[in-house]
Amino acid sequence: MATRVGVVLSGCGARDGSEINEAVLALYWIERCGGRAICMAPDATQAAVVDHLTQSADGTAAPRRVLSEAARIARGKIHDLASVRDNDLDALVFPGGHGVANVLSNYTEKGVVCEVHPEVARLLKAMLTRHRPMGFICLAPILAARVLGPAAGVRITLGSKACPEAKHAAVMGADVRPCPEREILVDQKNRVVSTPAYMYDDARLSDVGFAIERLVRQVMTFARERPQRQPQPGQSQGQGRGQPHGRGQGQGQPRRGNNGNNGNRGNNGNRDSGGSQPAVSAQDAGVVVRRQGNRDGERA
């Protein structure tokens, strides 16, 4: 069965809903990686409508329904967020856009003390409890910071640590790290993957797409991994039920980890086709690897 990846949308348009490029790229790579995207959005009224040509609020526009607007991206195949249960999903991905701050939360209005939409908070907590992977793009990691930061100290990136959103996320309880637009940050413990995307205003579509591919591949890898069995009392790891002696992950073999470099460029500059990835040690988990030619996450 295809891996079921929930994609949480917040409308249609970077200034008042989901960032369209990020959403479409996520949907594309979920399908390319053999997954099945399940689009969803809250059935609510959009707080404001922004004219994307003038970049200002359109006071003449009639109120819009978030679910209907998000259906533009999903080609009509979309679910009310309230109807989706965590056991319907193997993974969860949040594209960015100002809808994260206006629809999925009230971060624009309340900042550090914002409230996350209750259905979003429900899914985030349930996925964390079930140890199911989640990916956050652009501004979306602020949701993880607010809901999962206090509970799990989730590790995320919002690009530069100097931006206000990153500072707010740190106050919320998240472990915030800098990251360039072509990279991803992986929280191995909580199975959370994030990438800054258009948190950099001058980010190129090709760089955003490259990072979203890597994010989706890492989320899919996490989703397909079977959780490691806990040994029974008096039983060593690798000798649990259903695992032949010597073949368990704990039988003298390090657990295979990922540092988020799925689909990355190798040392010779050629892109990996998404095959096997090198394992990393525990201390490397969540560390962003910077390569020559990539910008550092911190800006002057």
Can you put this structure into words, describing what you see?
The protein starts with a strand and ends in a 76-residue tail after the last helix. The chain has eight helices and eleven strands. The chain has a single domain (3-52, 62-224), classed as Class I glutamine amidotransferase (GATase) domain (Rossmann fold). Strand 3 (50-51) and strand 4 form a beta hairpin. The chain has 300 residues and is of the alpha/beta class.
What would you call the quaternary organization?
single chain
Helix content: 25-40%
The structure class reads alpha/beta
Strand order of the largest sheet: 5-2-1-6-7-11-10
The general outline is globular
Cα end-to-end separation: 47 Å
Q: CATH class, please?
A: Alpha Beta
The largest sheet is:
7 strands, mixed
* CATH topology title: Rossmann fold
> Over all CA atoms, what is the radius of gyration?
19 Å
Order of helices and strands: EHEEEHEEHHHEHEHEEEH
Give the CATH H-level superfamily.
Answer: Class I glutamine amidotransferase (GATase) domain
Task: Please work out how many helical segments DSSP would assign.
Answer: 8
Outline the secondary-structure elements:
Layout: E1 3-8, H1 20-32, E2 35-41, E3 50-51, E4 56-57, H2 66-74, E5 79-80, E6 91-94, H3 99-102, H4 107-110, H5 118-129, E7 134-137, H6 141-152, E8 155-157, H7 164-172, E9 175-177, E10 185-187, E11 192-195, H8 205-224
Parallel strand pairs: 1-2, 1-6, 2-5, 6-7, 7-11, 8-9
Antiparallel strand pairs: 3-4, 10-11
